[in-house]
Request: fold
Amino acid sequence: MKKELTILELFAGVGGFRIGLEKANKNYYKTMWSNQWEPSRKAQDAFNCYDNHFPESENLNEDISTISDERFANINADMIVGGFPCQDYSVARSLSGGMGIQGKKGVLFWEIIRATKIIQPTFLLLENVDRLLKSPASQRGRDFAIMLAAFNDLGYSVEWRVINAAEYGLAQKRRRVFIFVYKNNSDFANKAQNYSDEEIIYNDGLFARGFPIENQPYKNRFVSDIISEDIVSVSDNFSSSIFNTGVMRNGKFTSIETLPVSEKPIPLKDILQPESEVDDKYYLNEDDILKFKTLRSAKKIQRISADGHMYTFSEGSMSETDDIDKPGRTMLTSEGSKNRSTHLIKIDEKYRILTPLECEALNGFPSNWTANMPDRMRYFCMGNALVTGVIERIGKQLYDMNCE
Reply:
């Protein structure tokens, strides 16, 4: 076993992967390179935050598509990590015929594939919204199947699991799909050959060991199928189901809808600051309270679409305030604004939103991690970030499995 894993962090944000892995084992996980670029923004707040906390690594602030193959070739990373945007992954044959497949311009997953092909890391750990497994609506599962086919083509196997952080003892009901990719000629892959797909899913895989599940499919949702070696064929014709848990090896995948063995979550009240430390600007006046009550109430509104079609926009009601005895809801990038998705709490008969420090705590970041940026961007960055406790747990499990 290597004494350390060198890491390239792509789409790095403010460093959630790095924080989680270093919490798991700072001596083992060594992030040596990163890239963070926020398109269409003059102020690169997330990059500045990352670079300020981790000046010892080589931190790039570039559009990933402009990073040359030669530069990637000089990065000797054992693992690539990152949370990438959910986009349209469909592909077609290139018109020239000599370039193989051609994805839509600007789809950043193909930059991960380019980096993987050049760097040849042993592992990748990726994160995305859980709807990736069911997109697009017109051909459910196609996008993720294309990803599986792409990694299969490069000689990698894949495990995946949708994890709700609150179901495993953390403070936020944040559901994300985590994708663990490993090279077929690695020691890790050789050990995995001792287990069937079902054994990996239920007991012996990375996610099964770190995030226990019930030992049977939910509603008998189970599928085993073959991924075509022709990625364009997958893009055009994929028609199988992909559930919240699965494994793909050598072009064959098994996917099962599973249920977690849930743990007691951290309630919202445990991450709140003392009210004496909360600035007055986070409290609501009477007009704000009325605005939030309207936003969180049930409504039916007649609207007209861009093409002139009239339709009824409907929303169900929400509770007037968030229950502080329960974990927080999923944070969005609009957190902190006058928006129905913003957390609203009531303490001592006073209404307020969460502070940036409390949002950092919901994601398991150190206090004041994003302090050197405006509040609006602090909320935005935390709405984009992952729950670092999930990464910490994955990191501990990967270390233990590599030590076996």
In short: The chain has two domains: 5-262+387-403, 268-384. The first strand starts at residue 5 and ends at 10. Residues 5-262+387-403 form a domain with the Rossmann fold fold (CATH 3.40.50.150). DSSP finds 13 helices and 16 strands in the chain.
